[in-house]
Specification:
By secondary structure, the protein is mainly alpha-helical. Helix content is 80%, strand content 0%. The chain has 24 helices and no strands. The longest helix has 36 residues. The N and C termini lie far apart (65 Å). The relative contact order is 0.10. The mean pLDDT is 85.
Length: 537
């Protein structure tokens, strides 16, 4: 009894140590990334590798089911909510081909390479399927500063290709273990079920979530409903043996289109910071886990020599990267031969610019979770062939492909990507259009509400001032912009003085902490409004 209590106490201390370690690593890596030109994700992987050298902490592992069923739905859902559906439609052919044909080609190339190096066909296909998909989290973190079209295509590809890869993975594991029969019709049925079932499950949960949330007027309850949505979509798809990944992505894309019509400002102020913080922590934990797993894989290697395993890892990495480069520089020319429409010509991307897409084939959480979920034994009780080697190669490929992020700034400079000011232009159009719409209806709206002329004149003046500021488009020499800058600076300075005065009241015991927090919340809203307006301009 005493021994059991002691073990429980040890696990509680261990859990606290890991939480503190992850938090410190997040802050430290973020600070270093601001000072030096290196992505925080790479630093977090390094932290994970270093953690593996500490005997007390090296056993920090997450069950693969946790990554697939807890981390992945949340991360994919947020990526789907924050991507551009319009850009996905415009580049749908590229996204579909990259998330299906490229995945199969990569899996086949890796499997053939692994088989040539001595691995049986079953385990080789397991390795190929695990390494076939790019990772949405890694792409979102490491390629977020690219122009909108490149980022959207890369994110959409990484969101959808997991479904194809996991079908191949499940089939390869089943055949190797002895639970699946490999026939053309069976493979086709699994793919159709995965995609059609995933789309239907995601759409159904999205519709249900839309109907439920549209009837809510409590931001907290709506936030909870939003939190449950991706897991419900994944669960429904999993029940019918469809692609949970695709269900979450479709649900997120659908919700991204209907949310602006049903969600109020209070709900957005609550859920957006929560999801941004939560997904940052989850993705950072996954990068640390990649480092820990890579270190553990080296220690656990028993089926072959370390030298042989390292050579295999490098060779497989070269194959993964080479297949993506070959795909990037062959399929566009095939499409050009088939489709000569003027609209297609406008979407063509030059050879230099395609180097960015070829370099951004990062692997990550899905690959890691897949190989960690490989069973240890076959149906007859024999050990799963080369399991330790598969885990080590996968971890090594993940780390090596993430290291490509170090080359990304140089590749972007080489690519000479055209300046992408489309977001800024559309932002100006949106602000001007909405302001014009408000000014056109101000008299009718005021009459409907019974508002006096004095208030109408004041509001009209504010709208007119904002409209002139938008028309100036941030020109520093424009008097309107200069006036607004001075107005913002003075307002922020006075807000700081109000905060100081508020603290003086609290310190003098003239107001309670509860009152301080309520007044401070109002000041925060004003400060954020001024800061965001200043940043946007």
């Amino acid at each position: 009894m005493v021994e059991r209590a002691r073990r429980g106490e040890d696990w509680r201390v261990f859990g606290l140590e890991m939480v503190v370690l992850l938090g410190v690593a997040l802050v430290a890596c973020g600070a270093l990334a601001r000072r030096y030109p290196i992505a925080p994700a790479l630093l977090l992987v390094l932290v994970g590798v270093l953690v593996g050298f500490v005997p007390h902490l090296r056993h920090a592992q997450l069950p693969p089911e946790v990554v697939l069923l807890l981390f992945l739905p949340a991360l994919l859902y947020w990526e789907s909510l924050t991507t551009s559906l319009r850009e996905i439609r415009n580049n749908l052919r590229v996204v579909v081909l990259s998330s299906t044909v490229l995945v199969v080609a990569t899996a086949a190339a890796v499997a053939a390479t692994a088989h040539a190096m001595g691995m049986r066909w079953g385990p080789a296909w397991v390795l190929g399927a695990a390494l076939a998909p790019t990772d949405a989290t890694a792409v979102g973190v490491l390629a977020r500063d690219l122009p909108r079209r490149e980022v959207t295509v890369l994110r959409a590809e990484s969101l959808v290709n997991d479904g194809t890869a996991l079908v191949l993975y499940g089939l390869a594991v089943g055949v190797t273990v002895g639970e699946e029969n490999l026939t053309g019709w069976h493979v086709t049925w699994l793919l159709v079920l995965a995609y059609a079932g995933g789309v239907l499950a995601g759409g159904l949960v999205g519709l249900l979530s839309w109907q439920v949330r549209s009837r809510m007027d409590d931001p907290m309850l709506e936030g909870i409903a939003m939190l449950v949505t991706p897991f419900a979509a994944f669960l429904l798809a999993d029940v019918v043996h469809a692609s949970g990944v695709l269900a979450v992505v479709c649900c997120g894309l659908f919700i991204s289109q209907v949310t602006p019509r049903m969600t109020g400002a209070s709900t957005r102020q609550l859920v957006v910071p929560f999801w941004s913080l939560s997904t940052t922590v989850l993705s950072s934990a996954l990068f640390v886990l990649v480092g820990v797993s890579a270190q553990s894989a080296f220690r656990a290697l028993a089926s072959t020599s370390l030298r042989h395993a390292l050579v295999d890892t490098v060779v497989v990495t070269v194959v993964v990267v080479a297949v993506r480069w070959a795909w990037t520089y062959t399929t566009p020319y095939v499409i050009r031969l088939v489709d000569r429409r003027p609209a297609q010509r406008l979407r063509r991307v030059g050879a230099r610019q395609r180097t960015v897409s070829a370099t951004a084939g990062f692997r990550g959480a899905v690959s890691l979770a897949a190989v960690l979920a490989v069973p240890h034994t076959l149906r007859g009780g024999a050990p799963f062939p080369d399991r330790d080697l598969i885990v080590l190669i996968t971890c090594g490929v993940i780390v090596l492909t993430l290291l490509q992020a170090l080359l990304l700034p140089a590749v972007v400079r080489f690519a000479r990507l055209p300046a992408d000011d489309s977001v800024a232009q559309e932002l100006q159009v949106a602000e001007a259009f909405t302001l014009d719409a408000a000014m056109e209806t101000i008299d009718a709206t005021a009459a409907e509400l019974g508002i006096g002329e004095t208030v109408v004149a004041r509001v009209r003046h504010e709208l007119d001032k904002r409209r002139k500021l938008v028309s100036a488009a941030g020109a520093v020499s424009d008097p309107v912009v200069q006036h607004d800058d001075q107005y913002t600076s003075l307002s922020l300075a006075l807000l700081a003085r109000r905060r100081a005065a508020l603290l003086e009241l609290r310190d003098a015991q003239r107001i309670d902490d509860i009152v301080l927090r309520r007044v401070q919340a109002g000041l925060d809203i004003e400060e954020v409004r001024f800061s965001r307006a200043n940043l946007a301009e």
